[in-house]
Each structure stands twice: as structure tokens, then as C-alpha cells.
Amino acid sequence: MLLILSTEIFFGTPPGLLRWLLDTAKRGGIVRKLEEYNEHAQECRELARRSKSLSDREMLLNMATTWESLAAGRAKMTEAKSRLARIEDQ
After folding, report:
1. Angle at Cα 34 formed by Cα 32 and Cα 39, nearest 5°?
2. CB contact at 8 A, 37 and 68
3. Does 24 map to a domain?
């Protein structure tokens, strides 16, 4: 129903812009994912700081780096999609 309402509201809107607007509406979920990834990274770093085992610390720091990489990749992908939608509408 939301999609139908959205297309009715934006009838005549160029497809790229419509896609960007709908993606922007969903971005709240993207922001939550980014926050979630960063929280996981912080948790891993905190566990590493408290760990007595060198191998556990290394593993947890690697996990933190992986979570941070996932967050950065998701942010870049989101920005690229937004730019592409704006270019398509020009």
C-alpha cells in the first residue's frame, strides 16, 4: 500500500528521483545498520581491551576492523546510489 501511495504522490516524477526519494525513506534502516555495525566494532574493541589473551585480543581487533569496514562500505554504497539517482534525473 505504501508503494502505491508513494507512486501516486510522485506521479510524473522522473524515475531516478523517485527511486532516490524512496531509498531516502528507507535510509532510516541504513542508518540503523551503520549504527549497529559501529556498535559491534566498539564492543569488540572493548572486549579486546579487557582480554588477557593476546590471541583473543588480536581476533577481537580484527573483528572490530571488519565491522568498521562493513559500515564504511555500506555508507559508500548508499552515497553512490544517491549520486547515481541524481545523475539519471539530469
Report:
1. 90
2. yes
3. no
